[in-house]
């Protein structure tokens, strides 16, 4: 009985798991047994392995093969284990040096003709490999640029199983085979975020968007078609700071798992995701058939999730946002595994005031029945709206707005946003927090951060009358801290609290 072993990495959610691929060649009738909780794609690997090895003029053992994927307690999914299984078989039959093979990780799907095909999730796989002390990886040539984003790992691009065999046989002789890297593709054009000065008029709404960006607060906008709601939302990323290294790694890992990595560098800008109102719950929060996939809320992690025409979304889909908004992650549970996806995003929802969209001012142009208008906005549940800090009334653009000229640029506003975020990050650093929107209300209501009764009088009155929930109370306090930071003050005053409550209740414009 002979034995071969190598390393591979599987990705569950957006997290990688280093797998020991062990092969035992024993006596018996020709059969391949795969143990270690393989999914359907992994269980079907023997057909691909046999064909790929035959086409590469390598011998597939005509005997009993046992392939174990350790740790056996974790589900293994995807065809990215193909290459590692083929190499472990070649090591077990002594076609390759077992000692050399055992030191290197292998990622890739095998084509029937022996090619090594691109796989998804290579970036998080490389991060996991580095954490698991795997310092050298053979990956599909198409994934090589993505894999090289992780420093500390030596990446070798391979196009075929023959490349892999040649690589290991040369190394066994104490030499090095430098496999050719693919020609660098064109750098992906930076995603155009536009400029805030593109917004015509809407100075109060622009100021409110700045507050939301500075503190990481959620926003709701109600206004007629053409008022600029979508434009305001799409310009929000342009005033957000660049992603930190940690955020960029997570955001790019999500893109990798979704097969959307389009450049040779980590993402630097906050993502902006705007799903259509027909989106399903699995597509929004994650899941789907087979292995769980990230949804739109995970794709928007560290960025903005924009729901245009929010009342047109299914109510069950909208209400699925409630827990991720509070917790910053979503857990998808299946029979054999539970996957956690990050989902800390800024929610921006936009709505027309009624089905026809013309119920503004006196409402003379509206053709909707009174009941239809009332029921339209009720599609957004109270618990969801309670998790939104800034509520804006966005009026129609007037001729005076057209004549007023452009407002401040995104660059100017972004500088203030960055300053506020740096200020709040320094303040909350001892608590492991950065944004005002992340601070628990229990902290803001306790020393040394609590405000005086005189400062919170308007909040206390709203709480006493039932016009404000405790969640709303705490979220208004967070908003007050952001307004305070924008002034450069040390602590919110009653004016900050009143302004925060006004923003929350949507009374800043008619």
TrEMBL record:
Keywords for this protein: ATP-binding, Nucleotide-binding
Pfam families documented for this protein: ChlI (PF13541), Mg_chelatase (PF01078), Mg_chelatase_C (PF13335)
AAA+ ATPase domain sequence ranges: 215-398
Domain of life per record: Bacteria
Signal peptide: none
InterPro entries (alphabetical): AAA+_ATPase (IPR003593), CHLI-like (IPR045006), Mg_chelat-rel (IPR004482), Mg_chelat-rel_C (IPR025158), Mg_chelatse_chII-like_cat_dom (IPR000523), P-loop_NTPase (IPR027417), Ribosomal_Su5_D2-typ_SF (IPR020568), Ribsml_uS5_D2-typ_fold_subgr (IPR014721)
SMART domains per the UniProt record, alphabetical: AAA
Coiled coil: none
A GO molecular-function descriptor: ATP binding
Family the entry assigns: Belongs to the Mg-chelatase subunits D/I family. ComM subfamily.
Protein name: ATP-binding protein
Protein source organism: Dermacoccus abyssi
């Amino acid at each position: 009985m002979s034995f071969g072993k190598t390393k591979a990495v599987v990705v569950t959610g957006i997290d990688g798991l280093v797998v020991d691929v062990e092969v035992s060649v024993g006596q018996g009738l020709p059969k391949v047994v795969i143990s270690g909780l393989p999914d359907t794609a992994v269980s079907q690997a023997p057909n691909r392995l046999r064909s790929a090895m035959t086409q590469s003029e390598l011998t597939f053992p005509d005997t009993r093969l046992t392939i174990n994927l350790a740790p056996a307690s974790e589900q293994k999914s995807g065809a990215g284990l193909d290459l590692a299984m083929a190499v472990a078989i070649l090591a077990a039959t002594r076609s390759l040096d077992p000692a050399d093979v055992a030191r290197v990780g292998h990622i890739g799907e095998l084509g029937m003709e022996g090619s090594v095909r691109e796989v998804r999730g290579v970036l998080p796989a490389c991060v996991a490999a580095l954490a698991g002390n795997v310092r050298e990886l053979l990956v599909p040539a198409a994934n090589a640029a993505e894999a090289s984003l992780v420093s500390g790992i030596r990446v070798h691009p391979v196009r075929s199983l023959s490349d892999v065999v040649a690589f290991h046989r040369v190394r066994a002789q104490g030499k090095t085979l430098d496999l050719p890297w693919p020609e660098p593709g064109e750098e992906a054009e930076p995603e155009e975020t536009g400029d805030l000065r593109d917004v015509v008029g809407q100075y109060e709404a622009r100021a409110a968007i700045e507050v939301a960006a500075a503190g990481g607060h959620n926003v709701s906008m109600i206004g007629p078609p053409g008022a600029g709601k979508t434009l305001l939302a799409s310009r929000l990323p342009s005033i957000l700071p660049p992603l930190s290294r940690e955020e960029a790694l997570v955001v790019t890992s999500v893109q990798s798992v979704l097969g959307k990595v389009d450049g040779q560098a980590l993402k630097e800008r906050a993502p902006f995701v705007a799903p259509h109102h027909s989106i399903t719950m699995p597509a929004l929060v994650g899941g789907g058939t087979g292995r769980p996939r990230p949804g739109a809320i995970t794709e928007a992690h560290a960025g903005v999730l924009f729901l245009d025409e929010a009342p047109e979304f299914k109510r069950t889909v909208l209400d699925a946002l409630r827990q991720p908004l509070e917790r910053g992650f979503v857990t998808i549970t299946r029979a054999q595994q539970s996957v956690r996806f990050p989902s800390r995003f800024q929610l921006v929802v936009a709505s027309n005031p009624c089905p026809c969209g013309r119920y503004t001012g006196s409402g003379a142009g509206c053709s909707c029945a009174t009941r239809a208008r009332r029921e339209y906005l009720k599609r957004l549940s109270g618990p969801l709206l309670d998790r939104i800090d800034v509520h804006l009334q966005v009026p129609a653009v007037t001729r005076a707005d057209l004549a007023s000229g452009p407002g401040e640029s995104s660059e100017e506003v972004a500088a203030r946003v960055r300053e506020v975020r740096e200020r709040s990050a320094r303040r909350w650093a001892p608590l492991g927090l950065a944004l005002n929107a992340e601070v628990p209300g229990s902290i803001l209501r306790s020393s040394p951060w609590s405000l005086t009764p005189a400062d919170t009088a308007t909040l206390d009155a709203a709480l006493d009358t039932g016009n404000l929930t405790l969640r709303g109370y705490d979220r208004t306090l967070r908003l007050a801290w952001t307004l305070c930071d924008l002034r450069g003050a040390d602590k919110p005053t009653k004016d900050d609290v009143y302004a925060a409550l006004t923003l929350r209740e949507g009374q800043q414009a008619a």
